[in-house]
């Protein structure tokens, strides 16, 4: 960044706060100041965006192409934030639009708005920044690629399960706060559609990975649903629509109250597991017992799982045995899954009903098998060697079968049963559904029934508001027109059945869904930016 220009611009607007940490120069342009206070002396932030103030002009390079853009940072997007930093967003606008220019056939009126969230592990999400280094060390990240293609980027920070209010007292980011914030950010953009220098608020595309993928799916499925209204009012969100155009969801950790069953339908019989390093740290940070006596690292700041850092979050090398109780509940959960799947009446593209018998076999299982077969076949067709995947059967250069019984041992289990709603309330999800005093809660009937101690159940409305399945096809919410859902073929943070069920339910409700399980991908996102942007271009430019 050009420091001189930055300081000058900031001084002109009178909104510069500077601090020195050692030799490091840190400056923050505070775009939104409280404009007044209410009767209880609480700050009120303006919902009116002012494009004339508090920006910097920046440039970065993508594939040798210089990308110039204007950056507005730390824009508070609600009138009554619980945590100002966590309810602010960054808005980046390609410079060409300030001269009425065109990029990639888009004008300032037609430029789509790319809206990535940085949520992982149900932790607070930071506002994304354009970067020349992508998450996978292979070129620009999604925000910078978006700018290079003429998209406006609106990147909100979002409250998460460890967010404490600006009052320093209560936990203000427990469920359903993250979806309330994402909606509020959409409403802020719509409220300012005539004040924003560029961007078509009817072409908002969300993007997220893992818990952030779940969030992106929720935003895409719950447009304008009235159930969220009291929460939006409480934080002073703009009174606008919050439906979006399209939703991109990488490995969504979603449908949490049914994810335990799906996990055991897949992994029952594998009785050892390898946790992710972020889980060990998360448990240690929260003073929880770490299974297998593994060392967590107490005292480290809470950190979201680094789903994007590599193909897979780093896994512990230590194999941990499931307890007798965990093995017993695995069977209970596995046996409960068919009734859930059958209740959904899902159909494939040909209209065949996808069901399971009491042993967990049937057309739904064949459908899942087909997804893995397609993934392996595509890899083979691209010339990749799939022979190390013992569960894939190849004959004469064709994938002829996938052994779903052999898959779980090969992929390995990451989570003991129950995978999500832990009997001792130790999971990230128990924390996400926790109380304002940080007490974790249950969210699924089976775990609650099994639990002999004191764990409370989250209230049913909160559980409802966290699951996109409750809003698809019921006519009471506006669903995004387009979805792109990815879940890697070796991802075992949740079972493939979970994103598959989401994709099928959307497809059965006449939504355009692009769902795929990429070969050799673990729990990660943004690993296929050329394809992601091809998809975005195709839906934005369709006549
Ligand atoms: C994430 C991963 C998990 O395995 C989980 O249970 C919750 C969140 C994540 O990477 O965001």
Q: What would the CATH topology of the largest domain be?
A: Rossmann fold
Q: Which regions are unreliable across 5 or more consecutive residues at pLDDT < 50? A: 1-31, 306-310
What general outline do the C-alpha atoms trace?
globular
Query: Could you estimate the helical fraction of the residues in percent?
Result: 25-40%
The overall pLDDT, averaged over residues, is 90
Percent strand:
15-25%
Gyration radius (Cα, Å) is 23 Å
CATH architectural category of the largest domain: 3-Layer(aba) Sandwich
Number of helices: 15
Distance between the termini: 39 Å
The count of strands amounts to 17
> Which structural class should the secondary elements be placed in?
alpha/beta
Largest sheet, spatial ordering of strands: 5-6-7-9-8-10-11-16-17
The CATH superfamily of the largest domain appears as Alpha/Beta hydrolase fold, catalytic domain
Number of individual domains: 2
Bound molecules: 3,4-dihydroxybenzoic acid
Summarize the main sheet: 9 strands, mixed
What is the CATH domain class of the largest domain?
Alpha Beta
Domain BD-FAE-like: 147-260
Keywords: Signal
Pfam families: BD-FAE (PF20434)
Signal peptide: 1-24
Overall description:
Residues 147-260 form the BD-FAE-like domain. Keywords: Signal. This is BD-FAE-like domain-containing protein. InterPro entries: AB_hydrolase_fold, BD-FAE-like_dom, Tannase_B. With 543 residues, the protein is an alpha/beta fold. Helices cover 29% and strands 16% of the residues. Strands 5-6-7-9-8-10-11-16-17 form a nine-stranded mixed beta sheet, sandwiched between helices. Helix 3 packs across helix 4 (211-221) and helix 6 (256-267) crosses helix 8. Residues 120-122, 210-211, 253, 305, 307, 428, 493 line the site of 3,4-dihydroxybenzoic acid (DHB).
């Amino acid at each position: 960044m050009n420091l001189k220009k930055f300081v000058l611009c900031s001084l002109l607007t009178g909104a510069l706060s500077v601090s020195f940490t050692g030799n490091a120069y840190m400056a923050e342009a505070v775009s939104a100041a409280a404009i007044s206070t209410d009767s209880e002396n609480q700050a009120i932030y303006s919902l009116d965006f002012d494009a004339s103030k508090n920006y910097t002009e920046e440039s970065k390079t993508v594939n040798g192409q210089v990308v110039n853009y204007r950056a507005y940072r730390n824009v508070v997007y609600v009138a009554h934030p619980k945590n100002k930093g966590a309810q602010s967003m960054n808005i980046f606008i390609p410079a060409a639009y300030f001269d009425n220019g065109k990029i990639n056939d888009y004008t300032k009126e037609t430029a789509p708005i790319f809206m990535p969230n940085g949520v992982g592990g149900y932790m607070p999400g930071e506002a994304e920044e354009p970067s020349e280094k992508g998450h996978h060390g292979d070129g620009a990240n999604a925000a910078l690629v978006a700018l290079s293609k003429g998209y406006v980027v609106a990147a909100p920070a979002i409250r998460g399960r460890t967010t404490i209010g600006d009052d320093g007292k209560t936990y203000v980011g427990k469920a359903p706060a993250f979806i309330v914030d994402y909606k509020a950010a959409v409403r802020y953009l719509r409220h300012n559609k005539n004040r924003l220098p560029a961007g078509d608020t009817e072409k908002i595309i969300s993007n997220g990975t893992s818990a952030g993928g779940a969030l992106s799916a929720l935003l895409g499925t719950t447009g304008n649903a009235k159930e969220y209204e009291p929460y939006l009012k409480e934080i002073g969100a703009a009174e606008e629509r919050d439906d979006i155009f399209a939703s991109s969801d990488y490995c969504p950790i979603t449908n949490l109250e049914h994810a335990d069953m799906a996990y055991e339908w897949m992994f029952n019989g594998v009785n050892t597991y390898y946790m992710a390093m972020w889980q060990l740290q998360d448990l240690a940070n929260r003073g929880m017992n770490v299974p297998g006596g593994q060392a967590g690292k107490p005292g480290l700041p809470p950190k979201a799982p680094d789903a994007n850092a590599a193909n897979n979050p780093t896994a512990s090398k230590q194999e941990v045995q499931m307890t007798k109780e965990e093995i017993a509940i695995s069977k209970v959960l596995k046996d409960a899954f068919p009734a859930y799947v059958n209740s959904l009446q899902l159909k494939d593209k040909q209209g065949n009903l996808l069901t399971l018998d009491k042993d967990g076999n049937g057309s739904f299982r064949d459908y899942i098998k087909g997804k893995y077969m397609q993934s392996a076949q595509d890899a083979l067709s691209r010339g990749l060697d799939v022979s190390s995947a013992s569960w894939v059967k190849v004959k004469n250069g064709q994938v002829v079968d996938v052994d779903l019984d052999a898959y779980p041992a090969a992929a390995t289990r990451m989570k003991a049963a129950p995978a999500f709603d832990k009997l001792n309330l130790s999971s990230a999800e128990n924390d996400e559904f926790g109380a304002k005093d940080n007490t974790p809660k249950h969210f699924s009937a089976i775990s609650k029934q099994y639990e002999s101690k004191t764990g409370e159940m989250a209230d049913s409305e909160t559980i409802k508001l966290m699951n996109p399945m409750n809003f698809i096809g019921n006519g009471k919410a506006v669903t995004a027109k387009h979805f792109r859902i990815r879940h890697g073929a070796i991802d075992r943070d949740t079972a493939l059945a979970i994103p598959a069920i989401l994709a099928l339910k959307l497809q059965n409700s006449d939504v355009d869904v692009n769902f795929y399980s990429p070969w050799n991908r673990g729990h990660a996102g943004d690993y296929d930016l050329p394809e992601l942007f091809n998809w975005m271009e195709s839906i934005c430019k369709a006549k």
